[in-house]
Design goal:
- The structure is a single chain.
- It contains 14 helices and 25 strands.
- The chain has about 575 residues and is of the alpha/beta class.
- Among the domains are: about 260 residues, HUPs (Rossmann fold); about 120 residues, Beta Barrel (Ribosomal Protein L25, Chain P).
- The strands form 6 sheets. A 7-stranded mixed β-sheet has the order 10-23-24-25-21-22-11.
- Helix 4 links the parallel strand 2 and strand 3.
- The longest helix has 15 residues.
- Bound molecules: adenosine-5'-triphosphate (ATP) and magnesium ion.
- The site of adenosine-5'-triphosphate (ATP) has 15 residues, from helix 3 and strand 8.
């Protein structure tokens, strides 16, 4: 991983530009020295790693000084796509990431009455009007970047008529799309967002919280800033796409008697390679059965990453590493993988597991013999201690730790060579058993009883391989994940018209006959381990005693792959 400039910044204790602005505001005594941030998800899908970036930024800032507060606000202004299922999952994910909102849980829908009252005030002030144009007419009338917009024929309605029509819109007298309320700003503004933006639309649709109380719903641009102002948000942080909405954000706040004066700041959204990040597309993958659900471990969702075995710490560290800037870029998913590998290396207990077993019969080991070897639980953590691992005459090793005809530089097992069994003796391969087709089905070996905990005299053993005792091993199914898409930018300009055509057909590989060391018999969902020499694995939520199921979170770096490359 190439360390980003931001990582260097944070190591040197340099703040990002938003934290610099906040520090200056606090120093200048703005907002009475208070800093209030919020995370404002729309409950129309599950959170993804991009949202995690926003959560870490907003919550992180709230923890970095006195008089600071963090709000969780559901931006639930569009009942057509929003559901309670999403509200619940978002709360679970935000909490899991470590952000705490305490008492400060809010819903934009709680402000519907106030927002309506303020809209009436704008009408009274001649700054909003009811437009009967069709959505197409409104779009056409808005003009382009090079042409000014055209005033709607309804722009100069009287205040009285506007008030009456707006009240009737609320009362449910008109069908969906018949009329909208627009702010009366400037049809010739170079900023299209100021060309009389729509504030309210008619939608006869039940809302997950307000039920059928409303058939009139505010647009994001109108609801958002006013919600910020109601809650006393001081720094309203959003992604760069909203930069040219800021003049509109400011216009509403300046033209309404709101109780506080929030300011909007924009940062670059996170884009990650080999995945898509919009909730709409993620929903499409779920609905289309292209993944097993929102929490499919290949998904960039927070619940998918959790099921995959990511830790909250690793996601927070990732967010710290990528930093906060104003430049849109593409972050290599390897940076995310690095962060979880780095964390699990410190905390995950080591165990031995064999994904594709090859039997080895240790011929000079007693038939019914059994010994307890001592395996180190975590070399990074001296406190973690050791555990017993049983050895017997028949063991299983990883099939690819044996090559009958090894190339130069291959130090693992092959006929006549000696390797160490991790935490145990050295063995020498003395024979190869094959089936009728010539496939290797078992190996014969001898062990040297003098090599427990010490090197054999006069012989150099260059590799230590993992193993399990055949008699003691427990069965498991292991799911190996690869990138969800074959292209770093599945929606990029070279990616073709349908990003779904770029799904990686090999993103999931199910390994059915894995054998694990006996201590894993009682592993429970959510537990994470390092399978020695293979990677980090996590017990899946569908795992059960007797039917163990593991997900590979991330592989260890494979030194052999590098050798082979060279
Ligand atoms: P999507 O485009 O994925 O559907 P969204 O912006 O519509 O996301 P919201 O629920 O409106 O989703 O987002 C909540 C907050 O998360 C917003 O403040 C938004 O700016 C932020 N956010 C969304 N996506 C990203 C991202 N990729 N990187 C950083 N912040 C993001
Ligand atoms: Mg949105």
């Amino acid at each position: 991983m190439k360390p980003a400039e931001n990582e260097e910044d944070s190591r040197k204790g340099r703040a990002d530009f938003i934290r610099e602005i906040i520090a200056a505001d606090v120093a200048a005594g703005k907002n009475g020295g208070q800093v209030v941030t919020r995370f404002p998800p729309e409950p129309n899908g599950y959170l993804h790693i991009g949202h995690a970036k926003s959560i870490c930024l907003n919550y992180g800032i709230s923890q970095e000084g006195e008089n600071r507060r963090f709000h969780l606000r559901f931006d639930d202004t569009n009942p057509s796509k929003e559901e309670t299922e999403y509200v619940d999952s978002i709360m679970e994910d935000v909490r899991w990431l470590g952000a705490e909102w305490g008492e400060n849980l809010f819903y934009a829908s709680d402000y519907f009455e106030q927002l309506y009252a303020w809209a009436v005030e704008l009408i009274r002030a001649g700054k909003a009007y009811v437009d009967d144009s069709t959505p197409d007419e409104i779009r056409e009338g808005r003009g382009t970047l090079t042409e000014p917009g055209m005033a709607s024929p309804f722009r100069d309605r009287s205040v009285e008529e506007n008030l009456e029509l707006f009240a009737r819109m609320r009362a449910g007298e008109f069908p969906d799309g018949a009329r909208v309320l627009r702010a009366k700003i400037d049809m010739a503004s170079p900023n299209l967002n100021l060309r009389d933006p729509v504030m309210y639309r008619i939608m006869h649709k039940e809302h997950h919280r307000t039920g059928n109380a409303w058939c009139l719903y505010p647009n994001y641009d109108y609801a958002h800033g006013q919600s910020d102002a109601i809650e006393g948000i001081t720094h309203s942080i959003c992604t760069l796409e909203f930069e040219n909405h800021r003049p509109l954000y400011d216009w509403f706040v300046e033209n309404l008697p709101v109780p506080s004066r929030p300011h909007q700041y924009e940062f670059a959204r996170l884009n990650l390679s080999y995945t898509v990040m919009s909730k709409r597309k993620l929903l499409e993958l779920v609905k289309g059965g292209l993944v097993s659900g929102w929490d499919d471990p290949r998904m960039p969702t927070v619940c998918g990453l959790r099921r995959r075995g990511f830790t909250p710490e690793s996601i927070r560290n990732f967010c710290k590493t990528i930093g906060v800037t104003k430049f849109n870029g593409l972050t290599d998913v390897a940076v995310l993988e690095y962060s979880v590998r780095e964390h699990l290396n410190r905390v995950a207990p080591r165990v031995m597991a064999v994904l594709r077993p090859l039997k080895v019969v240790i011929e000079n080991y007693p038939e019914d013999g059994e010994e307890e070897m001592r395996a180190v639980n975590n070399p990074e953590d001296p406190e973690a201690g050791t555990r017993p691992v049983p050895l017997s005459r028949e063991i299983l090793i990883e099939a690819d730790d044996f090559l009958e005809d090894p190339p130069k530089g291959f130090y693992r097992l092959s006929p006549g060579t000696e390797v160490r069994l991790r935490y145990s003796y050295c063995i020498t391969c003395t024979g190869v058993e094959k089936d009728a087709e010539g496939n290797v089905v078992a190996l014969r070996a001898t062990y040297d009883p003098e090599t427990l905990g010490k090197n054999p005299e006069g012989r150099k053993v260059k590799a230590a391989i993992h193993w399990v005792s055949a008699r003691h091993a427990v069965d498991a199914e292991i799911r190996l994940y690869d990138r969800l898409f074959t292209l770093p930018e599945p929606e990029g300009k070279d990616a073709g018209p349908d990003y779904k055509a770029n799904l990686n057909p090999a993103s999931l590989e199910v390994v059915a006959g894995a054998k694990l060391e006996a201590s894993l018999v009682a592993a429970v969902p959510g537990e994470r381990f390092q399978f020695e020499r293979l990677g980090y694995f996590c017990v899946d939520k569908d795992s059960a005693p007797g039917a163990l199921l593991f997900n590979r979170t991330v592989a260890l770096k494979d030194s052999w792959a590098k050798v082979a490359e060279r």
